[in-house]
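Data availability (excerpt). The following record was deposited with the supplementary files.
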Amino acid sequence: MSFTFRPLTEEDLEAGLALSEGAGWNQLRRDWRVFLDRNPAGSVAAEREGQVVGTAATLDYGPFAWISMVLVDPAQRGQGLGTALLERTLEILRESPCARLDATPLGEPVYRKLGFVDEYPLERWERAAGLAPAAAGVAALNSVEEVAALDAEVFGADRRWLLDWLLAGARHLAWRCGDGFLLGREGRRFTQLGPLICANDDEAVELIHAGLAASGRGAVIDVPAGKGSVVASLGFVKQRTLLRMRRGAASPALDPRLFAIAGPELG
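Predicted structure:
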């Protein structure tokens, strides 16, 4: 029996959550909902025998679009379903000048076959729960208006809505230091720290300290490869590599003020 494809709907969120949990991912229902809320027609579900066995989602950031939540039930792998889901997301994004994503080593060959090229490597680092040093020189981030212009300059697009969504979901993880800032979110398995944008290593350290102390849980942070030594000094251990890739028009070069992304599913 072949797969059928249709838009992802509210009724599919539990199936999507089951797929991400089965893959060991960190998403909560709120994380899945953001794709439907922001872009109701931008996500795809694959069905077989009435069951959702694959998903893919997109976000429109204006100058570029984001592809994420590409998940395939392990029992259905090896049949080209991942490629088929990606082809459908690219059709959804056909008017966008650029599509971007963060690829795992497993997914990278699939993306290359579809015309994606390298931008820069990323690394996921993990820290077990434990005491965190007190942060100095930090203050609570109360409004994204304080940092929206800096974020747009570094990220390459205005994603004020995403910063608002992160702040609403985890105000305890929102901090300022100098001109820089940290946001984050709580997940099923751990706290995700990021985005983190700041001028230097010292500010990054203080912001991460603040996030760790506020969370009290195990945490992960996804950083450009050159920032690994900073988080290693804070007790994080490298977990895996990712590769930021694009298809289409060139996107912004990596800004040295980017210390951590919002997560592979959000950019």
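Summary of structural features: DSSP finds eight helices and 13 strands in the chain.
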